[in-house]
């Protein structure tokens, strides 16, 4: 297989995608490079365990010290458990790509990203996010790409795309945006009391760069000959519409019950009643199975919560501008260095 490479200058340096040399047994693999930071991202898939009722997607990101030309010091020379930063990067990879798979897709998918080389200035996290989208695009998985991600800084009233670690020290913004050519899918980051108009401009600037990287990915996938997906969408749940027609209003009323505990009990009682009416004899030959009922009930729950929020009311009665009441106390325990507890929505946090 010949090596396919596409590159373009994004910001101060060149962003490139390459495939055809490494990880040939993966469903799709990509080398993503910016500066001297290189990340290998590979995607693999297989059938999930029988009875799986969710999409088993696993994203993993690892930064090895060897990537910077070093090895762990001290008595133990092996790499340890994933750092907090690596775990957070796994989440950054997962969040934008998960909704790009079709509803009902249940095959197991693993996306593994390893930083092979690091110049210690250009972070590998955003490169892994882009590499994940490219690797999935190269595979035969039903992934609705392209999908791109960028990091943006704000230094001296100017936006800087793919900033270095040194530039981030001077920036009042560290923003990661992921999306496709049509819309923004994920926003992550922080700023130092930035005005809303500048933040909006930052998001729009990120999306312009995202469009450029998506065009790069489309060109790359065309050159590499991306595989066609043979996935056939699953049939719709046979009882979902029946639940909507019969129990939508009852479920919506239960969801608007005042008090978290009372609301949970009202929903539980309704679910038991509906299940008894829909499945009077679980042992009957044509009885609705429990997984089918659970899936339909979950989808109806999701729809009702969404409808309530779009109508301007959350399930607990708050509107979009009202904060949940919170109570905080300090010095609640003796003989400790310090103690504090907060109480919100019947949940305590120490």
Question: Could you please describe the fold and organization of this structure?
Answer:
The longest helix has 29 residues, at 196-224. 28% of the residues are buried. Helix 1 (84-97) packs parallel to helix 2 (125-138) and helix 5 (240-255) packs antiparallel against helix 6. The mean pLDDT is 92. The chain is globular, with a radius of gyration of 24 Å. The chain starts with a strand and ends with a strand. It is 34% helix and 25% strand. The strands form three sheets. It has a six-stranded mixed β-sheet. It has two domains: 4-224, Ribosomal Protein S5, domain 2 (2-Layer Sandwich); 240-310, Arc Repressor Mutant, subunit A (Orthogonal Bundle). The protein contains seven helices and 13 strands. It is an alpha+beta fold and 350 residues long.
Helix content: 25-40%
Give the strand line-up of the largest sheet.
1-2-3-4-6-5
| Total beta strands | 13
User: Count the helices. How many?
Assistant: 7
Overall CATH class of the largest domain: Alpha Beta
Q: For the report, how would you describe the main beta sheet?
A: 6 strands, mixed
Basic shape: globular
CATH superfamily of the largest domain: GHMP Kinase, N-terminal domain
Whole-number count of domains: 2
Annotated CATH architecture of the largest domain: 2-Layer Sandwich
Percentage beta strand: 15-25%
Protein name: polyribonucleotide nucleotidyltransferase
EC number: 2.7.7.8
Enzyme class: transferase
InterPro entries: ExoRNase_PH_dom1, ExoRNase_PH_dom2, ExoRNase_PH_dom2_sf, PNPase, PNPase/RNase_PH_dom_sf, PNPase_PH_RNA-bd_bac/org-type, PNPase_PH_RNA-bd_sf, Ribosomal_Su5_D2-typ_SF
